[in-house]
Design a protein that fits this description.
This protein is of the alpha/beta class. The chain has one domain: Glutaredoxin (3-Layer(aba) Sandwich), CATH 3.40.30. The chain contains four helices and seven strands; from the N terminus they run H-E-H-E-H-E-E-H-E-E-E. Strands 2-1-3-4-5-6-7 form a seven-stranded mixed sheet, with helices on both faces. A hairpin with a 4-residue loop joins strand 6 and strand 7. The longest helix has 25 residues. Keywords: Signal.
């Protein structure tokens, strides 16, 4: 009886351990909570938040009329600004209509000396800026701590965003 008892409990323990290991591997490897600062009236920001949430991010939306101050606080240069600013729990900034898959890649890579990413302006066809089948190619810019920038990703078609 003791052998059967031990065998049964050993199997249960192994299955439990396997479940825990499998669950840990399924957990996201990136920081998935974003605080999104936006104007209370901005509809495209709402659409971008929907895009981000559909990709698995959790958002905390903060409606504010002090967006310029927020952007200055997070060291986003005027020429890199857009309509909304998202901030990860780690302090990375994501300015504008950046595709979720590019943000996920950035959070996995965490480039040295980077503060985040930007899609300046509001390119037609970018996530949240969809207008029928219109699309305007754009670049996702890597923002560095020293104020310099470089191209992080080129988005040449609507399909590349997803």
């Amino acid at each position: 009886m003791n052998v059967i008892y031990l065998l049964r409990h050993s199997v249960i323990f192994c299955l439990s351990l396997f479940s825990i290991i499998t669950f840990a591997q399924d957990k996201p490897t990136v920081d998935t909570l974003l605080q999104v600062y936006k104007s209370p009236q901005c509809g495209c920001c709402v659409k971008w938040v929907d895009h981000i949430e559909q990709a698995g991010f959790t958002t905390q939306v903060i409606n504010t009329n002090a967006l310029a101050e927020i952007k200055t606080q997070f060291a986003i240069a005027p020429k890199q600004r857009s309509c909304h600013t998202a901030v990860s729990q780690q302090g990375y900034v994501f300015e504008g209509h950046i595709p979720a898959k590019v943000i996920k890649r950035f959070l996995q890579e965490q480039p040295d000396n980077a503060i985040g990413l930007s899609v300046a302006g509001m390119p037609v066809g970018s996530p949240g800026m969809e207008v029928e089948n219109n699309f305007m190619p754009y670049q996702v810019i890597l923002l560095m701590k020293d104020g310099t920038t470089q191209t992080y990703a080129k988005i040449d078609s609507a399909k590349q965003q997803f």
